[in-house]
């Protein structure tokens, strides 16, 4: 009887550790994704070509970091996002707010599509990106 209680306690403790680890990983992934979304908002708000270039460099750094940590996207996904960002960069420099908003909507849609095809942790990253983008799309 004592042996069964000890075994049950061990199993419950192990399950709790695994659950906490998974939640922590999802939270970290979402936080990392939010940094990318915020960097995109910095590009949107750039008031000079230099600021836009700096914001784009930060975005690419964040994408590389997320790709390395979470193997987030396929080459095709990355190319789609890069094309969206190139359009956003161009329109932000031009000061064309209507096209900037359109670019952000396309980027949100691309991110949503990638998230739909992702596992739970990867999806948390993209949820974080969308959360970060919310600051500049609403």
Describe this structure in words.
- It is globular and about 40 Å long.
- The protein has helices at 2-44, 49-70, 75-94, 97-116, 120-137.
- The termini are far apart.
- 30% of the residues are buried.
- The chain has 138 residues and is mainly α.
- It is built from 5 helices and no strands.
- Helix 2 (49-70) runs antiparallel to helix 3.
Q: What key phrases describe this protein's structure?
A:
globular, 138 residues, 89% helix, mainly alpha
Give the ordered list of helices and strands: HHHHH
Biggest beta-sheet profile = none
Shape descriptor reads globular
Strand content: under 5%
What is the CA-CA span between the terminal residues?
Answer: 60 Å
Count of distinct strands: 0
Provide mean pLDDT, rounded: 80
* Oligomer state of the chains in this structure: single chain
Helix amount, in percent? Answer: over 70%
Taking all Cα atoms into account, the compactness measure Rg is 19 Å
Low-pLDDT stretches? 11-22
């Amino acid at each position: 009887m004592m042996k069964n209680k000890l075994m049950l306690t061990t199993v419950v403790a192990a399950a709790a550790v695994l659950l906490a680890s998974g939640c922590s990983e999802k939270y970290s992934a979402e936080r990392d994704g939010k940094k990318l979304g915020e960097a995109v908002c910095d590009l949107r708000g750039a008031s000079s070509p230099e600021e836009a270039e700096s914001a784009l460099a930060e975005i690419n750094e964040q994408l590389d970091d997320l790709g390395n940590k979470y193997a987030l996207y396929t080459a095709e996904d990355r190319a789609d996002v890069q094309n969206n960002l190139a359009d956003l960069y161009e329109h932000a420099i031009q000061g064309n707010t209507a096209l900037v908003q359109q670019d952000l909507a396309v980027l949100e849609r691309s991110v949503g599509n990638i998230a739909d095809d992702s596992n739970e942790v990867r999806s948390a990253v993209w949820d974080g990106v969308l959360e970060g983008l919310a600051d500049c799309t609403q």
